[in-house]
Specification:
Blueprint lengths: L3 E5 L3 H13 L3 E5 L2 H10 L4 E5 L7 H11 L4 E5 L4 H9 L4 E4 L4 H14 L11 E4 L4 E4 L2 E3 L3 H11 L8 H8 L8 H18 L3 E7 L3 E8 L4
Parallel strand pairs: 1-2, 1-3, 3-4, 4-5
Antiparallel strand pairs: 6-7, 7-8, 9-10
């Protein structure tokens, strides 16, 4: 059965081109012209992924993303002509998984769709290198060996590992790491991630557990580490 892609786009010519290309690439596109229509469709149906234009009439794309993310982990790729950092960061912070600026190639859109869908099904690490988190003990184990993490490092790793493939902004990670609402800089997140990576590398030198997205944040996604 072909993966269903919900295409939310108010410009018919663009929507038809995207739908035709998605269909030829093995997907089943469902087109909705407005944010309201997309939300109503999702209330009764399921999709593998949503391609969401931001410049929609009625309920704007950002608000559609926010409402969907309140109740669903549906992968969302935003499509927009707004090519500035603040829009990209805002879209990611409210729950988008990826962001494509117009003009874009149809081939690129399909490639991004496949990439985001693969993130939801990360390849497992070799059994002897899998990460095990023990919440009762606040302890991480890899390859049968304990990884000595601080309380904050453990909470950060747990937050990422609970949603494999999900991209978290630094602001979202700060909120999840510190329950007391303290104010810290985003560099603090980078420092904690660096230390976690170093500690995991001691027991699993061939595996990278945390991936970074330049300017956006981090995700838990297992990949082979390049060894020099």
């Amino acid at each position: 059965m072909s993966p269903v892609v919900l295409l939310v786009e108010d410009e018919a010519p663009i929507a038809r081109l995207l739908a035709d290309y998605l269909r030829s690439d093995g997907f089943e596109p469902i087109w909705q012209r407005t944010g309201d229509a997309a939300l109503n469709w999702l209330a009764e149906n399921e999709a593998a992924l949503m391609l969401l234009d931001l410049g929609l009439p009625g309920v704007p794309g950002m608000e559609v993303c926010r409402r969907v993310r309140q109740t669903s982990t549906l992968p969302i790729i935003m499509l927009t002509g707004r090519d500035n950092e603040m829009d990209r960061v805002l879209g990611l912070e409210i729950g988008a998984d990826d962001y494509i600026c117009k003009p874009y190639s149809l081939r690129e859109v399909c490639a991004r769709v496949r990439t985001v869908l693969r993130r939801g099904q990360p390849a497992p690490a070799p059994a002897r290198e899998q990460l095990i988190l023990d919440d009762d003990a606040g302890r991480a184990r890899v390859a049968g060996r304990d990884v000595l993490l601080t309380v904050v490092e453990y909470q950060l790793l747990r937050l990422l590992a609970a949603r494999p493939g999900r991209l978290f902004s630094r602001a979202q990670l700060i909120d999840g790491m510190y329950a007391d609402g303290r104010v810290v800089t985003e560099r603090t997140v980078d420092s904690h991630v660096r230390k976690i990576r170093q500690k995991l590398a001691v027991v699993a030198p061939r595996v990278e557990f945390i991936q970074s997205a330049y300017g956006a944040g981090y995700r838990y996604e297992i990949a082979s580490r390049r060894l020099s």
